[in-house]
């Protein structure tokens, strides 16, 4: 096992973890505060990626496209909240699951209607297509470093927003007692719409950053959504801190597992058997982790303090 | 259940039984295949309804048990075809294995999932189903992502197979009627009273002295078995199995059918499956991108017709229908 590969895989894991965190933070904000299970969160991720791809082609610059994509996905999210999700807050979780499942079906076909069935590529600008030596002997692509930097910056911003600002105070208060915050004269509907928009913007950010690495295609949000759910369930639903820790754990386990599981398994069973079993096992690992954690802590690692 | 509901239920089942003959008269043999698909999917919905409708357990992973049932047929065929194990293509053995393995999987997964409540339960059943999905995506010897085609059908002794869609149709009808009978008996027995009681107030049922966990787990395993039966028949119908059958969106389809038909009603899943596939067939005949219309339709149903089709039959449309 050579250490350069290990460092690279760990960095890839952190990077996947931060993408997952961007998705999971939006999911868990919406769930923790509004008590809404939003399956269509992955669709916002997909729409973010498609908008970014289109804007990159239109403006010829990935950076400008990225800057425009953020408010665009925020608007899309707020529109969805006002048109459809607003009526679901006082329904039970099953209704929310079904209605947002309907949104997924709609979104997948809508994207196909607008952008066509083929996927899209996002072309990176020259300065992001380079790579540099982050540690002696370890060369790593600049763009992937940028993802890590942006992800960490957003995490820090979110922490600051929730823990240190007036909006954050309202968010935390809304999570413990909605009616009370409303009674104190806060426009709770507007607050919810804004929070949902914020979540959508982070999903869009994840989509636009993942776009150049993965292909931008229909249904791209549906599988990563489940991984994001795993993250918030492991972390404790409603807890941003839990989402951050769990996202990094899941990102690392998924990536490092895929890279090294064949070798590790090979130590115990034959190499042929290890090579056959490893792909299955490594894609199952995050789910296995979740099962083990929930078997011991049914509320996740960091259950939110308020009930 | 009111007498009216029984009459409608029996009428629908009677029409389904007569459908192949009706299709002959109308000279539309395609109907038989189409409705056979409804029957096999509907059995899965009946299985899910046992936990979702009567037990209040929102399992978002029941497609996994359908898939396991189907893969028993696929794997049996594979070893018969590649390695010459004659017995593995025996339909009876496959049927028993499909019921047993899907029931066992539901028992193990349910044992862990039922420790959690509410939204955690939704998520963890979803995650387990994804796990099963990825196992089959990763199993290259059984086709991995691409799945397995069944070039030869399992035999049920004397060369009998379910290769003929008409034979399969009647077998599926009997299986559906059998599943309905089983669910009806379970639900009206003490067992059903306990899981229904646990749905409305688990703590009270425990206080009275019922070990509700065991009752719920039994219901979960039984519902997994019914889904396994659905998978077994699906494989025989489509002559193809693939991990796509277990994708989490397939579990979503099953939930839609149960809710569309009417949760916690005996015939609800049957109506739901019929309505789902009818709407799909109609919309896709007119629109290439039919989900563009189906998605909003689903949202409208959730928002405005909570009782599903059975609720409409009762004439009580509305949230608590």
From TrEMBL, chain A:
GO cellular component, one term: plasma membrane
Location in or out of the cell: Cell membrane
Bilayer-spanning residue ranges: 12-32, 39-56, 62-85, 97-118, 138-162, 190-214, 226-253, 265-296
GO-annotated molecular function: transmembrane transporter activity
GO BP term, example: amino acid transport
The UniProt record lists the keyword Translocase: no
Chief localisation class: membrane
Key words, A-Z: Amino-acid transport, Cell membrane, Membrane, Transmembrane, Transmembrane helix, Transport
Keyword Membrane assigned: yes
Membrane topology category: Multi-pass membrane protein
Record-linked CDD domains: TM_PBP1_LivH_like (cd06582)
Entries under InterPro entries matching the protein: ABC_transp_permease (IPR001851), BCAA_transport_permease (IPR052157)
Highest taxon of the lineage: Bacteria
Record family assignment: Belongs to the binding-protein-dependent transport system permease family. LivHM subfamily.
Protein name (database record): Branched-chain amino acid ABC transporter permease
Originating species: Minwuia thermotolerans
From TrEMBL, chain B:
Any one GO cellular component localisation term in the record: plasma membrane
Sorted UniProt keywords: Cell membrane, Membrane, Transmembrane, Transmembrane helix
UniProt subcellular location: Cell membrane
Residue intervals passing through the bilayer: 35-56, 63-81, 93-114, 121-143, 168-187, 213-234, 254-279, 291-313
Gene Ontology molecular functions: branched-chain amino acid transmembrane transporter activity
Topology term for the membrane: Multi-pass membrane protein
Tree of life domain: Bacteria
Record InterPro entries: ABC_transp_permease, LivM-like
Protein name: Branched-chain amino acid ABC transporter permease
């Amino acid at each position: 096992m050579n250490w350069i590969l290990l460092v690279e895989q760990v960095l890839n894991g952190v990077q996947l973890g931060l993408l997952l965190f961007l998705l999971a933070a939006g999911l868990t904000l919406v769930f923790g505060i509004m008590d809404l299970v939003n399956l269509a969160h992955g669709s916002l991720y997909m729409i973010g990626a498609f908008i970014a791809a289109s804007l990159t082609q239109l403006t010829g610059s990935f950076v400008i496209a990225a800057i425009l994509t953020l408010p665009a996905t925020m608007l899309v999210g707020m529109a969805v909240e006002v048109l459809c999700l607003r009526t679901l807050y006082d329904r039970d979780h099953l209704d929310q699951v079904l209605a947002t499942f309907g949104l997924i079906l709609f979104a997948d076909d809508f994207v196909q209607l607008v952008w066509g069935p083929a996927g899209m590529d996002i072309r990176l600008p020259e300065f992001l297509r380079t790579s540099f030596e982050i540690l002696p002997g370890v060369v790593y692509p600049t763009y992937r470093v940028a993802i890590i930097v942006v992800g960490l910056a957003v995490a820090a911003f979110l922490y600051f927003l929730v823990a240190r600002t007036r909006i954050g105070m309202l968010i935390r208060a809304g999570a413990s007692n909605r009616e009370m915050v409303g009674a104190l004269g806060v426009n709770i509907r507007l607050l919810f719409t804004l929070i949902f928009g914020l979540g959508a913007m982070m999903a869009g950010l994840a989509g636009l950053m993942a776009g150049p690495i993965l292909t931008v295609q229909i249904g791209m949000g549906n599988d990563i959504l489940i991984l994001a759910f795993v993250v918030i369930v492991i972390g404790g639903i409603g807890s941003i801190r839990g989402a951050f820790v769990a996202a990094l754990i899941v990102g690392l386990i998924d990536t490092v597992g895929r890279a090294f599981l064949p070798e590790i398994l090979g130590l115990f069973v034959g190499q042929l058997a290890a090579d056959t079993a490893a792909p299955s096992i490594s894609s199952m690992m995050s789910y296995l982790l979740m099962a083990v954690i929930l078997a011991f802590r049914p509320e996740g690692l960091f259950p939110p303090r308020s009930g | 259940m009111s007498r009216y509901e029984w009459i409608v239920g029996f009428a629908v089942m009677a029409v389904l039984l007569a459908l192949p003959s009706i299709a002959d008269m109308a000279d539309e043999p395609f109907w038989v295949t189409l409705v056979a698909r409804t029957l096999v999917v509907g059995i899965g919905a009946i299985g899910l309804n046992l936990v979702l409708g009567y037990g209040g357990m929102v399992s978002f992973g029941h497609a996994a048990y359908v898939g396991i049932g189907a893969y028993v047929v696929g794997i049996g065929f594979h070893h018969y075809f590649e390695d010459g194990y004659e017995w593995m293509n025996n339909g009876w053995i496959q049927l028993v294995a499909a019921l047993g393995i899907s029931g066992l999987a539901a028992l193990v997964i349910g044992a862990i999932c039922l420790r959690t409540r509410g939204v955690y339960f939704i998520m963890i059943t979803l995650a387990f189903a994804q796990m099963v999905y990825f196992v089959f995506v990763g199993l290259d010897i059984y086709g991995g992502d691409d799945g397995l085609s069944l070039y030869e059908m399992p035999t049920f002794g004397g060369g009998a197979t379910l290769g003929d869609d008409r034979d399969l149709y009647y077998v599926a009808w009997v299986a559906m009627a059998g599943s309905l009978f089983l669910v009806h008996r379970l639900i009206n027995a003490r067992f059903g009273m306990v899981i229904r009681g646990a749905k409305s107030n688990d703590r009270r049922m425990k206080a009275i002295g019922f070990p509700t966990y065991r009752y719920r787990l039994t219901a979960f395993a039984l519902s997994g078995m019914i889904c396994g039966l659905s998978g077994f028949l699906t494989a025989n119908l489509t002559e193809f199995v693939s991990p796509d059958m277990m994708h989490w969106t397939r579990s979503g389809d099953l939930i839609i059918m149960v809710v569309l038909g009417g949760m916690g009603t005996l015939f609800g899943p049957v109506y739901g499956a019929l309505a789902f596939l009818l709407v799909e067939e109609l919309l896709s005949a007119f629109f290439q991108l039919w989900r563009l219309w189906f998605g909003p339709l689903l949202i409208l149903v959730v928002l405005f017709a909570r009782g599903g089709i059975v609720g409409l039959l009762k004439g009580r449309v509305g949230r608590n229908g």
